[in-house]
Amino acid sequence: MSNIAQLKADNGQYQWHPMAHPAAMKKTRPDIVARGEGCWIWDVDGHKLLDGVGGLWASNLGHSATAVRDAIVAQLDELPFYNTFRGTSHPRAIELSARLVKLMEPDGVASVMFSSGGSDAVETALKLARQYHKLRGEKDRFKFISLRQGYHGVHFGGMSVNGNTNFRRAYEPLLPGCFHIDTPWLYRNPFTDDPLELGEICAELLEREIVFQGPDTVAAFIAEPVQGAGGVIVPPANYWPLVRKICDKHGVLLIADEVVTGFGRTGHLFGTRLWGQGGGIRADLWCLAKGISSGYVPLGATAISSKVAQVFNDDKTGQAAVGHGYTYSAHPVGAAAALATLDEIERLDVPGNAGRVGAVMQARLRKLAQSCSFVGDVRGVGLMLGIEMVQDKALRTPMPRSSDIPARVAKEAYQRGLMVRISGPNLILSPPLVISQTEVDHLCDTLEASFAAVEASL
Ligand code: PLP
């Protein structure tokens, strides 16, 4: 067996993949990505593809950001690892925390707590939210409310607030006290086609749930500023401002899961800055990962507002020590990668590029909803876009899970040199944020041709 054939065989034999059936992987021909440069990747067979997935919403600077690579190598020479437990620290952790707080000062951020990825950042936020209320003497506030279709990672807390049954069922019973409400999803809701009316109705659903549970039992509401894995669902413009008001009214913390939207993907540095007037919505806790280090080294962070930080800082109960943290919290190599990433985000105006070329991508691909018989909805903002495939367009009948059409579109795209991601009936695009206009044109040309090819074969 050649080396490549061996790799393909061993993949399913020895490795269990996230979100995949282990036995099915033994039969599946894997897409083995062997090399990356700029916004492009090559599989082990030498086939060149435009990376429409951005690694997994992560490779925002593409695959050959020299500045990030150099910072990583320098850090490996200087100090490959040290912990940040209790009184211990290292220079990169300190520099990165100061840098992030400065960056998020307009959002009301006072401090940051590091971890190793998005699920960790969510878990940290959920735990800090409970501790915040305990420190304030509101010991019964332990419940979490979240959105259907939301995705918050795979730890038990995150899984419990996830809004998709597929991510929950096999691991139940989950964390007690987690409740889900309808997401403001314009394409699929039983209420209205008017976005602002939908924003109001769905915000009211949050208030009704808080009141039903008893406001003095609810710790936090957690949501993504734009839902990613759930199919790129963009809420109406009034939703987050209304949610902020409702949370304030009932003393409920607002956690913004910015693991996907953070660091430029929506065309703004943070997704919360998309919403509200005059600089965005101030959450109480933010979950950050992926784009923080452009995926070069795993890193997560939970940003803490001054409102939350003050309660910990001023504590008189003696219970404010944070009994949480990971061996690799603020890993020096991850922190060095993040510092260099932040330099590059600023130098290249990454959010600006995402906004500009993203608008072109959105405008072009939205036309698929008119031109293709099995595309029901195309939605997104900046460089995140979801294409929902349906069985019956007029009736908006969901594409059955058994349908092979989404996979066929992805295969056509792959053969034409574009990597895309399929999640249920949705094709999801999240290319690197440094993608050029020419590359976006190529992406759109390829995808249009792929949909047309599948349509012609039906
Ligand atoms: N939160 C959101 C919004 C995500 O999209 C993800 C991952 O895609 C996570 C949390 C979990 O991040 P990780 O996979 O790094 O644990």
Automatic annotation (TrEMBL):
Family label: Belongs to the class-III pyridoxal-phosphate-dependent aminotransferase family.
Fetch the InterPro entries from UniProt.
Answer: Aminotrans_3, PyrdxlP-dep_Trfase, PyrdxlP-dep_Trfase_major, PyrdxlP-dep_Trfase_small
Alphabetized, the UniProt keywords read:
Aminotransferase, Pyridoxal phosphate, Transferase
Q: What is this protein called?
A: Adenosylmethionine-8-amino-7-oxononanoate aminotransferase
**Which GO MF terms does the UniProt record name?**
transaminase activity
Please report a single Pfam family linked to this protein. Answer: Aminotran_3
